[in-house]
Structure formats: structure tokens, C-alpha cells
């Protein structure tokens, strides 16, 4: 019993130290850097609603003078309307339908081929984010100062009010968002990522993405193989609203881990082993460890919650922080449920190599699409 209690105390202490490390390394002096030749690449579905909040936030960026390149599958009315309003700043590219790769990847590859000769910095964003005004400037700073080859932020889910199941998904993602960020172990997130044009050329980015489903994993693994410098920007936890049906939110979570498993089983195995150890620890604490073990678990969970509150308050807007904190309620009430849900998502992810995304079923092996089929009549594309 003493050995088990010691191990449990060590496990909980390490998780607390990990979140504390993230907080301690949040940049206080959040330097930005303007640059010429910046293009922001946005891939959208053809039924895109125009993301008025996102476009307004891009217009309020601290660093101005960039071009917005919007990649669609075919005709997207909202994208056409945006380009007609700002013909000098917004460029459209229509990629058509993919045959042997993810539709998002297909659009990104078309965007790369549509770059202008004077495009020097590539910034990739997703349509469902609510970025801060410092986003582009913060991503550019390490690139312009030659401190990194690829720079990335990470998502911070904002669960809708009164939806505890969505808050649980958000709590699982919060575990990942507040992990210590080390350059040697960083994977880029395509929702907020930047690189120099020469880095894209060095990677052969078009070829590296060809046939792939996950842009994040393809770029990250190619960068690791090329020994590039990947740099996380810890204060760029970028708000992403989560207001879907519970089933869709869970499918999203499973899809993220299925991307990992179908690209790198070793990476999935390591992440799952950590979650399994925590889950088993909670099972022991609740079943056999008694009140001292439960107290250790809850004490560490509340400590992580307090640290995460400080992290959230320091990186997003007050309204976004209120929404993000909904996920923290699970740390207070039932931290074991977060671990068990996390492990369940990881295990379900390896039950199949088929990923449903944007109206298609993709069969993926070693990161490559081996088969794709429509699952509805009029998919709008990823």
C-alpha cells in the first residue's frame, strides 16, 4: 500500500509540476515583428459562412499589410463576396475535388502553388478560431529573428454554456493544451502556424502533403525528419468555440487521435500509456486507496485547476476565459472522469483506420489516404 501511495503521489505531483511549468514559461514580454511578404492561408468549406468574427479579428491584427489567400474546393459564395469587397487583399484559389488525399490538404497544396514570387512568410489558420490581435505578429517574431523554422500555437476549446459533456471534451483537450512545451517535442497545429517560404521549399511542402489527410502531422513529421527548429508560442492558446452536438464533439476528439495513430503508432502508444497510468491510478485511489489517496488526487486536480485558470486569464480575452473555464469544473468535481474519457477516446481511435471528415470517409495507412468515399450527396469539403 505504501509503494502504491508513493507512486500515486509522484504521478499527481508530476502533473502539477507540468502545468506549473507551462505557467512559469508564459512569455511576459510578448514581442511581435512586422514583415513584408506575409500571406495568410485559410482553407474553407464551400458552404463557409464567411466567419465574420474571424475576418474582423484579422482586420484588427497588430501587424498589418498581409494578403489573405482563401482556398476553396469549388465555388464558395462567402469567399467570392469577401474577395469582391477587398480585391487587392484577398486572393481566391479553387482546388477542385481531391481523389487520393484529404480535401483540406488538397486545398492547401493548391494554395501553395498559387503563391506570389514575393511571398516570404506563410501563416496558416483555421476558419473556426477567434484569434487575438497579436496572432500574426507573435507567429512572425521567431521567424523574422531566425529563432525558429516553424512556429505554432495551439487550440483552446470554449465549450458552450450548459453543456457538461462538451465541457468534458474541453477538459480532455485542456490537458493537452497545458502540457509543457519543448521545441524538441513540439508538433505544429495547422490552426495557427507559420513558416518562412524557404522553409516550405526546403521541406518540399507540396510533395510532403501529397496523399496525406492530416496537414499537421504531415508537416510535423517532415520537419522532425529534416531536423528543423519547431517553436511553440505558449501565449498563443487560440480560442476555438465548441458548440457542436455531443456526438460530433466526441467524433472530433477521436479523429484527432486517429490522425496520430495512423501517422505514428509510437506517438499514440506513448500518449495512451500516460493516460492509462493516470486512469489506473484513479481506479486504485477510488477503489482501494481510501480517503488519503482520493485527497491526493483531488488536491492535485484543484491545484492544476488554479494554475490553468491563471494560464487562461493570461492568454485569452475575458469573455473567452469565462467560456474556457467551464472545462475546469471537471477538475473540481470529477477529475477521474477526464482521465477515463481521455483514455476511452485514445482506445476508440485505434479501433479503425477510417476517418470521417468533411463529408468523406478516408481509409488511412501510415498517414497516406488509400481510399476515400463520399458519405453524403453534397459534401462541401473540409
The proportion of strand residues reads 15-25%
Helix count, DSSP H or I runs of 4 or more residues: 14
CATH fold field value: Spore Coat Polysaccharide Biosynthesis Protein SpsA, Chain A
Element order, helices and strands?
HEHEHEHEHEHEHHHEHHHHHEEE
CATH architecture: Alpha-Beta Complex
Give the overall pLDDT as a whole number. Answer: 96
**Over the alpha carbons, how many angstroms does the gyration radius reach?**
21 Å
Shape call: globular
Q: Tell me the helix content.
A: 40-55%
Q: Output the strand order for the largest sheet.
A: 3-2-1-4-6-5-7
CATH-defined superfamily: Spore Coat Polysaccharide Biosynthesis Protein SpsA, Chain A
Give the biggest sheet: 7 strands, mixed
CATH class: Alpha Beta
**How many domains, as an integer?**
1
Number of strands: 10
Q: Please give the alpha-carbon distance between the first and last residues.
A: 51 Å
Structural class: alpha/beta
In short:
This protein is an alpha/beta fold and 382 residues long. 51% of the residues lie in helices and 18% in strands. Helix 6 packs parallel to helix 10.
General description of the model:
The structure is a single chain. The protein has 382 residues and is an alpha/beta fold. The protein is built from 14 helices and 10 strands. The protein has one domain: Spore Coat Polysaccharide Biosynthesis Protein SpsA, Chain A (Alpha-Beta Complex), CATH 3.90.550. Helices cover 51% and strands 18% of the residues. The strands form 2 sheets. It has a 7-stranded mixed sheet. Strands 8-9-10 form a 3-stranded antiparallel sheet, with helices on one face. Helix 6 packs parallel to helix 10, helix 6 (164-177) crosses helix 14 and helix 10 crosses helix 14 (335-349). The model has no long low-confidence stretch (mean pLDDT 96).
Amino acid at each position: 500500500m505504501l509503494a502504491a501511495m508513493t507512486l500515486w503521489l509522484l504521478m499527481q505531483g508530476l502533473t502539477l509540476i507540468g502545468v506549473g511549468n507551462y505557467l512559469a514559461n508564459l512569455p511576459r514580454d510578448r514581442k511581435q515583428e512586422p514583415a513584408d511578404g506575409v500571406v495568410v492561408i485559410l482553407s474553407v468549406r464551400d458552404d463557409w459562412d464567411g466567419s465574420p468574427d474571424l475576418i474582423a479579428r484579422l482586420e484588427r491584427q497588430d501587424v498589418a499589410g498581409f494578403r489573405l489567400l482563401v482556398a476553396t474546393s469549388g465555388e464558395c459564395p462567402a469567399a467570392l463576396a469577401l474577395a469582391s469587397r477587398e480585391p487587392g487583399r484577398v486572393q481566391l484559389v479553387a482546388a477542385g475535388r481531391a481523389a487520393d488525399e484529404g480535401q483540406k490538404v488538397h486545398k492547401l497544396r493548391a494554395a501553395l502553388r498559387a503563391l506570389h514570387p514575393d511571398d516570404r512568410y506563410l501563416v496558416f489558420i483555421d476558419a473556426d478560431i477567434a484569434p487575438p490581435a497579436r496572432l500574426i505578429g507573435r507567429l512572425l517574431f521567431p521567424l523574422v529573428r531566425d529563432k525558429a523554422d516553424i512556429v505554432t500555437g495551439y487550440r483552446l476549446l470554449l465549450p458552450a454554456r450548459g453543456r457538461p459533456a462538451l465541457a468534458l471534451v474541453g477538459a480532455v483537450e485542456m490537458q493537452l493544451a497545458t502540457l509543457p512545451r519543448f521545441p524538441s517535442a513540439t508538433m505544429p497545429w495547422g490552426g495557427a502556424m507559420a513558416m518562412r517560404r524557404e522553409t516550405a521549399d526546403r521541406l518540399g511542402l507540396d510533395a510532403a502533403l501529397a496523399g496525406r489527410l492530416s496537414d499537421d502531422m504531415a508537416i510535423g513529421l517532415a520537419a522532425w525528419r529534416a531536423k528543423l527548429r519547431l517553436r511553440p508560442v505558449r501565449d498563443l492558446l487560440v480560442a476555438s468555440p465548441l458548440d457542436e452536438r455531443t456526438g460530433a464533439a466526441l467524433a472530433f476528439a477521436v479523429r484527432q487521435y486517429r490522425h496520430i495513430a495512423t501517422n505514428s503508432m509510437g506517438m499514440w502508444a506513448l500518449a495512451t500509456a500516460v493516460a492509462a497510468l493516470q486512469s489506473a491510478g484513479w481506479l486504485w485511489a477510488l477503489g482501494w486507496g481510501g480517503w488519503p489517496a482520493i485527497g491526493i488526487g483531488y488536491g492535485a486536480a484543484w491545484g492544476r485547476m488554479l494554475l490553468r485558470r491563471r494560464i487562461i486569464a493570461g492568454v485569452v480575452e475575458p469573455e473567452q476565459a469565462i467560456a474556457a473555464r467551464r472545462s475546469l469544473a471537471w477538475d473540481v468535481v470529477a477529475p477521474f472522469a477526464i482521465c477515463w474519457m481521455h483514455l476511452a477516446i485514445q482506445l476508440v481511435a485505434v479501433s479503425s483506420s477510417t476517418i470521417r471528415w468533411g463529408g468523406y470517409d478516408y481509409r488511412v495507412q501510415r498517414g497516406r489516404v488509400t481510399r476515400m468515399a463520399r458519405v453524403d450527396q453534397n459534401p462541401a469539403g473540409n
